[in-house]
Amino acid sequence: MEGETHMATAELAKNPANYTTLTPLTFIARAALAHPDRTAVIYGDIRRSWAETYRRCLRLASALQALGVGPGDTVAALLPNVPEMLELHFAVPMLGAVLNAQNTRLDARTIGYMLDHGKAKVFFTDTEYHQRAAAALSDCRQPPLVIDVCDPHVSEGRRIGRISYDELLSHGSEEFRWQPPEDEWHSITLNYTSGTTGDPKGVVYHHRGAYLNALSNVIGLGLPSGAVYLWTLPMFHCNGWCFPWAVTAVAGTHVCLRQVQPERIFEAIRAHEVTHFCAAPVVLTMLVNAAASTQVHFAHPVTAATGGAAPPAAIIEAMEKLGIRIVHLYGLTETYGPSVICEFQDTWAGLPLAEKAGKIARQGILSLSMTDMMVADPATLEPVPRDGATIGELFLRGSTMMKGYLNDPEATAKAFAGGWFHTGDLGVWHPDGYVEIKDRSKDIIISGGENISSIEVENVLYRHPAVLEAAVVAMPDPFWGEVPCAFIAIKQGQALDEEEVVRFCKANLAGFKCPKKVIFLDELPKTSTGKIQKHVLRSRLAAMSA
Question: Please, what are the domains in the chain?
Fold first, then answer.
């Protein structure tokens, strides 16, 4: 207003009292202070409190510093979901260094590529993986210092490093005093994309994003103080979608699980009264198809978050019957994992289970850590109508977006063109603002000018009681251009033929969306993170047609 006196912002400047950088390191310091005696980690017969866990992280940081690890250095880790991997998520950034958690299922060549590309100074590796680790190191231009993690639960393994994790820890000091980063934009972790069409890209996260995504997960999944979290999701996958920091923020309990098997999951949830876990859809499929003698129907509340490919409504329905509530998330390596969440609406509670599951299967709306999203024309960036029918590409922006691709400015610029992150995922925008992914841009099937969502067809296939796994890809057709082809794995003890599959699909889909060919496999090929490899299926189909 005219004549109004405005405050001079110069008199209200940032200072050490009113401004500190955001970093998830503050979570473990607070957990140790507020709940020193609360159980932080469970692994086999190991039980550690938050006070002890924090002291171990300080000793580890101190010992790494003595080895010459400092700000900006990369520390790589090829480890399963063991306590050591959790501790590295705090100890490494305490030094201003960058953690590169590596996929334990990758081949030696790819591991070696990441060690070189990320310029790893130190490499922690589990003795179970000694053969691949040694092969990867033999190809490195500048091999890092190797530190062995010797898990007593592993009967077969061999040390290949100079020192073990426990030996390193014994050299560290609990008096180590870490400092938060001077700038919350400083890098905290380095993750790699799947690299299905070439070498994987190095995705760099910052402290600010890790902090915000962790708190977004706390709120989105409703993690209470003292939540008990089961590690079924690999900690190497987008840093366990940032749950090493999220669970620590609520001083919860990390229940580490080395092997993801249905009987181990059910038993861990029962024995430790697990409240939350995250899992890829393939793990949910394993649980609902486990032997009846293995399955446990839980009386206490259990919440499971799932991401990756949209879980079929039939899987969501089956999980709820086991007493496990599903929260559907969407994200990419570039977005620290969860960036879109299917927030449950009160009005859905009274819906029939199948209809409710269909609502939950949508990807949803922005997570709290993101700023904006749109479904738009990828060429013009014009948003599509919110009609639940018009297909466009999903675009995102926000504080939990990667800094960029390591040493790849061209790919970074392409990903951020127009001030938005280009996900490459195609979907529709519903009137309620929820987005529903229909396909990857390369997986949409265009048949006679009609767009066919392979996900829609797969959801129908998964409803058949004999189908264990299903994937749909485009098959060239001289008349229609391309038509759907289904690859199916059948449940053990069940029988199914092409005629039955087509008949079932015609009863649940428009005719042009139904598979024109069905190929049965014992198991569908998957990436190292459990996603079905459609490019492998397309190659197989091409070879069969040649």
Answer: 25-214 (3.40.50.12780), 260-374 (3.40.50.980), 445-545 (3.30.300.30)
The sheet with strand 163-164 has its strands ordered as: 163-164, 145-149, 120-126, 74-78, 98-101, 187-192, 202-206, 404-405
Q: Could you give the CA distance from residue 258 to residue 42 in angstroms, rounded to a whole number?
A: 12
Q: Which helix (H) or strand (E) holds 422?
A: strand 421-429
| Confidence band, pLDDT 50/70/90 cuts, at residue 39 | very high
DSSP one-letter code for 233: S
DSSP 342-411: -PPPGGGTTS-HHHHHHHHTS-BEE-TTEEEEEEE-TTT-PBPPSSS---EEEEEEETTS-SEETT-HHH
DSSP 8-state class, residue 478: T
Q: pTM for this structure? A: 0.84
Give the Å distances, CA to CA, from 290 to 60, 223, 283, 341: 40, 27, 10, 27
pLDDT tens readout for residues 338-389: 999 999 999 998 898 878 888 888 899 999 999 999 999 999 999 999 999 9
CB 439 within 8 A of CB 425: yes
Cβ-based neighbours of 291, under 8 Å, separated by 6 or more: none
Contacts of residue 158, defined as CB under 8 A and 6 or more positions apart, other chains included, come to 127, 130
Per-residue tokens: 237: 């996958």
Residue identified by tokens 């995504």 is 213
Element (H, E) at 424: strand 421-429
Using the structure block, give the residue that is written with the tokens 């890790």: 210
Asked if residue 38 lies in contact with residue 226, where contact means CB atoms within 8 angstroms, the answer is yes
Backbone angles phi, psi at 202, to 5 degrees: -85, 115
The pLDDT, as a whole number, for residue 450 is 65
Return the C-alpha torsion angle 519, 525, 531, 535, nearest 10.
-70
Give the whole-number percent of the chain exceeding pLDDT 90: 70
Contact 167, 157 (CB under 8 A): no
- Dmax (CA) of the chain: 83
The pLDDT of residue 215 is above 90: yes
Give the contacts of 85 (CB within 8 A, at least 6 positions apart).
77, 79, 101, 235, 236
Q: What is the pLDDT of residue 449?
A: 59
Q: State how far the Cα of 364 lies from the Cα of 329, in Å rounded to an integer.
A: 8
The pair of three-digit structure tokens given for residue 505, joined into one six-digit string: 């699909």
